[in-house]
Specification:
The chain has a single domain, classed as HIT family, subunit A. Helices cover 26% and strands 22% of the residues. The chain is built from 3 helices and 5 strands, in the order αβββααββ. It has a 5-stranded antiparallel sheet with strand order 1-2-3-5-4, covered by helices on one side. It is globular. It binds adenosine monophosphate.
Length: 114
């Protein structure tokens, strides 16, 4: 989709600190990390949010979670614990309208979130 920040990152048109990638999913560090480990996982194809991915292509949603598990291991937060978050829509606090999952870890994370 034109004018989509994460489409541009997925295409390599805007630089990002990529930590892992597959044919269909890219993982890169969040530019404003909220934890020692803060990685975003996105589908290369444009979807507005994660539920839209799950509706259209459940296998792709599973690939995003599988790559998150791989990154959690490579970042050293698989055993210590971590959190996957998919902010969705206005009330969910989604600021970038391209599906993404946050992987957060490396510190104790409070619950409930704000
Ligand atoms: P959300 O608020 O759930 O939509 O998350 C969007 C995330 O994208 C935020 O945590 C931002 O810090 C992050 N972000 C925005 N622009 C960039 C960028 N160019 N590179 C990496 N992360 C970004």
């Amino acid at each position: 989709m034109s004018d989509c920040l994460f489409c541009a990152i997925a295409a390599g048109e805007i630089p990002a600190d990529v930590v892992a990638a597959t044919d269909r999913v890219v993982a890169f560090r969040d530019i404003q990390p909220q934890a020692p480990v803060h990685v975003l996982l996105i589908p290369r194809a444009h979807f507005d949010d994660l539920p839209s991915v799950a509706d259209a292509d459940p296998a792709l949603a599973a690939e995003i979670v599988a790559l998150a598990a791989e990154v959690a291991r490579s970042e050293g937060v698989a055993a210590t614990g971590h959190r996957l978050v998919a902010n969705t829509g206005v009330d969910g606090g989604q600021s970038v309208p391209h599906a993404h999952v946050h992987l957060l870890g490396g510190r104790s994370l409070a619950w409930p979130p704000g």
